[in-house]
Known about the structure:
Two copies of one chain form a homodimer.
Chain A: E1 3-6, E2 10-16, E3 19-26, H1 28-36, E4 43-48, H2 54-60, E5 64-70, E6 75-81, E7 88-94, E8 114-117, H3 122-129, E9 137-141, H4 144-149, H5 151-159, E10 163-167, H6 168-175, H7 180-189, E11 194-198, E12 204-208, E13 212-215, H8 229-244, H9 249-267, H10 274-277, H11 280-293
Parallel strand pairs in A: 1-4, 1-8, 2-6, 4-5, 8-9, 9-10, 10-11
Antiparallel strand pairs in A: 2-3, 6-7, 11-12, 12-13
Amino acid sequence: xxxxxxxxxxxxxxxxxxxxxxxxxxxxxxxxxxxxxxxxxxxxxxxxxxxxxxxxxxxxxxxxxxxxxxxxxxxxxxxxxxxxxxxxxxxxxxxxxxxxxxxxxxxxxxxxxxxxxxxxxxxxxxxxxxxxxxxxxxxxxxxxxxxxxxxxxxxxxxxxxxxxxxxxxxxxxxxxxxxxxxxxxxxxxxxxxxxxxxxxxxxxxxxxxxxxxxxxxxxxxxxxxxxxxxxxxxxxxxxxxxxxxxxxxxxxxxxxxxxxxxxxxxxxxxxxxxxxxxxxxxxxxxxxxxxxxxxx
Amino acid sequence: xxxxxxxxxxxxxxxxxxxxxxxxxxxxxxxxxxxxxxxxxxxxxxxxxxxxxxxxxxxxxxxxxxxxxxxxxxxxxxxxxxxxxxxxxxxxxxxxxxxxxxxxxxxxxxxxxxxxxxxxxxxxxxxxxxxxxxxxxxxxxxxxxxxxxxxxxxxxxxxxxxxxxxxxxxxxxxxxxxxxxxxxxxxxxxxxxxxxxxxxxxxxxxxxxxxxxxxxxxxxxxxxxxxxxxxxxxxxxxxxxxxxxxxxxxxxxxxxxxxxxxxxxxxxxxxxxxxxxxxxxxxxxxxxxxxxxxxx
Lengths: 296, 296
C-alpha cells in the first residue's frame, strides 16, 4: 500500500444552475481517491452505510476498501451553488454513520509511504496519523468549520504533517490576514515543510522554506458542479507524488499541476461522472495546456 | 512620439490601513505614464488645474506634456481602502477642470505608433482615437462606471482598439457572465485582437484568437496602497510594447509580466512614491522572480 486516504464517503444532493443530482456518490475521501486512482490504487479509510447503491459500490471497488467500515446509513449532504459557483451553500447535513467514525487503520495501511488526511475533524486526523509506522509523507486538508470549532486540534495536526492544503478563504481565516502570501508564510511557521493554498479558478500557490510557486487555473468555460474539486485537486496531487515517490519541491510543483488537471475535469460534470470520460491521456493533454498557458 | 497616453491627472486623498496621503499626485494618465517611463518618454494628454504643486510638476516633467491643458482646479478624488484592500471606496469626487476635458492631440501625437486610452468617458476615448493618423496599436482601459452609464459608446470604442483591458469584475459585468474565460472570449467577439483581464493579486489573463496566457500575481506580502496599480499595469505593458515595437502575442505575454512588475512596485507604497526607489534594474529582478515562480 503506497497511499492511504482518509475522508468522508457520502451521498450528495447537489443543485447548480446547470442541473442537479440526487444521491450522487461524494465525500472528501471518495473524491480524493478517485483523483489518486489516475496514478495508483489508493487504500481508502472511512465509514459508509449499508444503504450504498450497487452502482456506487462499483466505483468504490476501484479503491482498496479494507479500511472502510460499513454500518447504518451513509453520510448525506444536500447543497446548492448559485450563479457565481463560488461557494457551496448547505441545505442539510445528516452525519449518520459518520458521527461514529473512529478510524482504525488495517495493518497494511499503517506502513504506507503516503497519507492523505482529507477534510475531517482534526482530532480524527491526529488519531489517524498517530497509527502510522515509519515516516510517511502526510498531506492534510481542512475547512472553515474546523478552523472555527477546533482551532487547537487543527494547529496540532498541521504541525505534524509535511504538507498542509486549504483554500484561500480558509488560509485568510486561520492566519487572520487578508494577504495570501503572508498567510502562506505564517502557515509554514506552524510546522509543515510545504503549504498549498487553493484559489479555485485562479489556480494555487505553493509555499516552502526557500520557494514559491504560482500555478495557474485551468481555463474552464463551463463549470457544472464544483463539488469535490478541492478534494480531487489534493487527491490527484498526492496520487502523483505517491506514484513517483519524489517529494522534492520541483516534483510537488508538477503534482500541483496534475491535481489541477484532475480537479478541472471533475468540475466539468456532476459528481464523479468525469471518471467515465476522462483517462490519463486526457489528463496529460491538460498538463500540456498548462505548460502552454504559462509560457512567456 | 512613440507612445501617447490619454487619461486623468489628479490630486488624491487616500487612506488605507497602512497610512494616508493628501493631495498626492494621481490619475489614470499619470500612473500609466509613470509606468511607461521605465521604457520610453510618453506623451501625456489630459487636463490639470493651475493649482498643481511644484513637486508634482517635477514628476510630470518626466513626460512630454505638449498635450496637457491647464486651467481651473485639478481633478480631485478622495477615497479609502478597507482591511482587505480589494476595492477603493470613494468618499468624494470633484471633477473640476476634468469636466471640460476635450482632448485635442498635438500634431506630433497624432502620428504615434502606440496609443493608450486610459480609463475615461468612452466618448472621449472615441474622439481621441479618431484623431490618430496611420494605424497605431491602441490599448483601451475602462471601469464599471462607464459600463453602467455608457455601454454603447464603450462597445463602439472597444470594437476599434487592438487590445482591451479591464479588471475581472468589469469583464463579468460587461459580458454578464460569472465565468472569466467565457467573458474574455466574448470580449474578443466585440472586435479587439487581444483582451487582458486584470485579477489583482491573482495576476492577469490574456485572450487572443488562438491563444490564452495566464500571468501569475507578484507575491507581495505588503500592499500599502493599490491606487493606480491597474493603470500602472496597463502603462507598463504598453510602454514595453512601444519600446520593442513588437505586438506579437508572444511579446504581449512579456509585456504583461513587465506591467505586473511595475504594478506590484506601485502597490508597495503610496501614490507614485515607488518611482523614487525603483529603477529598471529592480523591475528586471521582479521579472526574474516571475520566471521562477511559474516554472514546473
